[in-house]
Amino acid sequence: MKNRSITYLLLFGICSMLFVLQSCQETDDLRSEIDSLKNRVQILEETANQLNTSIESLQYLLNDPVIVGITPIKNGYTVELSDGKSITVMSGEAVNALVPSLSVDNEGYWIYSIDGGITYMPLKDANGNKIYAIPTSKPSDPDKPATPIQSPKLKIDANGYWLLSYDNGKTYQNLTNNDGSKIEAIESAGKNSIFDKVEYNTTSKKLTVTYADKTIELQVIDTFYLKVKGMEDMQIFPLNETRLYEVEQQDVTGVVIKAPKEWNIVLKDNELSITSPKANDIENKEEIINIIITSSKNYIRIVPLKVQLLTTGYDANACDAWNKYNLGEADNLLLDFSYAGYKHGEVAPPDVWSLGYTVYNVKDYGAIPNDNKSDREALTKILAKIGSKVDNAKAIIYFPKGEYILHTAADDVDGQSQTIQLLMGGVILKGDGRDQTIIKMDAPNQPKDPNVMYSSPVMLEIKHNSGLSQITEVTGSADKGTFSVEVASTTGIKVGDWVCLQLVDNSPELIKTELSPYQPTSNMTNLHNDGVQVYDYHLVAAINGQTITFKEPIMHAVDSQWKWTIQKYPHYENVGVEDMTFEGKAKVDFAHHGSWEDDGAYKPINLVRLTNSWMRRVGFRSVSEASSIVNSSNVSVYDVIIDGNRGHAAIRSQASSRVFIGKVTDKSNGFLIDNRNVYEQGAGQYHACGVSKQSIGAVLWNVDWGTDACFESHATQPRATLIDRCTGGFMRFRQGGDYNQMPNHLADLTLWNFNAKNNVTDSPFIWWDSNSLWWKFLPPIVVGYHGGSINFNESQMKLNEEQGKAVTPYSLYEAQLRKRLGAVPAWLNSLQ
């Protein structure tokens, strides 16, 4: 009789019994038994498949292979061999069935046990010969290549007995006991893998596999690879879409790309370009791009990239707000935020080791990691050697793996804490990795005045120690979003200079215009006394007569009747902080404005008066405030983790232009602000990432802040802020700002695809509260607010589009970069 699947026979048998059993059992009981047998059949089939996978994997491991890649999976690893083959090595999970335990004897033959490994029997073929476990056999003809030996395969027959195949599943025979009796997969304690234990030591780079009473230990070569950043998970492509990705590679001497039909893939240096087909009629078509790489030792690896292709183009389902911007329609409300970040978002900061800078290893200057002693003197020695007020130090201050203490109570002078100042450009603070190099504050920075809760100094400050000075007056008006202004004189200005387009004017009519549609109140003394203040830093791209053209669009309309000027802007450039974590000792029971220790005791680092600078791959643990980017322009802060005890603030753009703050995850823990009895994991810093003072053009992209937090908008005239595809709490009064510095935010606050993890319960939610001194926002633009239910007062908004669902494009910043550059830059795609 022909074999039929166990599933079919078991279910057929049950169904044939229904008539007999119906009189004595309920239908529900029968269904329960059917479901139980279905589940048991499925488990047995899965067990056999997993066991076969482990048998094949063991054969490869027995051949002493060269392992060139290893990726963690559940209960084990995907192991890449030097011939391009990938195998799965997983430790066994318990199953309720008698499963043969396989092993290899000392002579290299397969053996099996059905009593939990107490006794073993040899596997034999149909002719009674033992089965050799080594992956290749010696050919009878030495001039012919070796013939691969196929792995034994197990399965369960229709009657529940174990079967064995030696010809890759073409024919099967019963697996038997010594007495010739068939072995049944009865309910018992078994495992679904030949392996008992699988471990990979990331330090020694060794894979250790244990099976039966034997152990295999293999070295893993981790110096041959190609990684496409941002393609770790499947990426969805619209039609005819080009995307760029950063590529990290080592010891790659050859590359072959095998792409599906009509996909265009180009690898150039360290950038991969992927262009999708122009047409497709299959919904959500999934395909794989294979990049085959070879090494200097002729090893082979296959790098698979999973892609999904849509049937529509990029703008096919775009929202109205984007379409109006994209088409340049007269009623468009969106500003162009695409110039934010290092080098205007067009490229990533360089690999600092490629710059040729002098490396100052702190260990060479007396720092001893992990000794619980201050390492501050080592840093000050390095700074003394580099010098002060150096435009381009060309220096890397390197902190190798370990913990370094840069502030202790002993560092205070007469009870006052002192900031370590780096007055230089072209300097990089470099560690060995966010989880490897830890920069610690072992004691709080003492406040200048304990009653002024923010008066503790910052531990580290990289800054240009100067201020603005007037060059000329602005004589012509310019619309928001344009690039040029007319000035009285261009003397002292040249292409390539950074300048500040400044307005400081307390004319009552101007103040009323600035606050429209609202009226100024008497308590807004910052506006009344100091006036409307705009500090918009720009790079001069061209000069024609009395007209200056900037690289970036103007983010505030220029009306020449007010006191607009061009200011000289002294600054440093090319400053970087990367691959380290800053650790403080923020209080476990943080309370906003509870004391100076709550608000400002642990502030590790600020960047001041810098352009084209960056902070990346860093962490902040148990800090009062993570970092402020002050009086700067085009600085990028990205790939940041904030954890430990929650504190006062995260990362802010403070009186800066076009700062990019992206891919920040705030998972700090603490008590809820409105319920001190509840301690919440992931509550987040009180003020999440955001803006303060005269910030303009800032972008918060893909930031995930705490459930008990909200974006910072700390008053003193921030404008034009994009909060783009961010996630977190949406809580009132987390924005900040004193009543005399109101409003919290002026024009052009834009929330795009915000995903609320926790909403305020106000109904309706108002943006300008006439009954509160501390809650005042000019009408914002909100598109795609989703995740939580909230009732906005739309009369106080410029736009509230598609509330309750995410819109297309998912990121406004990415879409605007794509429109300006033709494709989203590789550095940004690599952060997805």
List keywords for this structure.
mainly beta; Immunoglobulin-like; Pectate Lyase C-like; 3 domains; seven-stranded parallel sheet; 9 helices; 56 strands; DUF4955 domain-containing protein; DUF4955; signal; RHGA/B-epi-like_pectate_lyase; coiled coil
Q: Mind explaining what this structure looks like?
A:
By secondary structure, this protein is mostly beta strands. The protein has three domains: 6-219, no CATH class; 225-313, Immunoglobulin-like (Sandwich); 342-410 and 421-462 and 572-829, Pectate Lyase C-like, CATH 2.160.20. The chain has a 15-stranded parallel β-sheet that branches. The protein has a seven-stranded parallel β-sheet with strand order 28-31-40-42-44-48-50, with no helix packed on it. A hairpin with a 2-residue loop joins strand 15 and strand 16. Residues 1-25 have low confidence and may be disordered. Residues 1-25 form the signal peptide. Residues 684-831 form the DUF4955 domain.
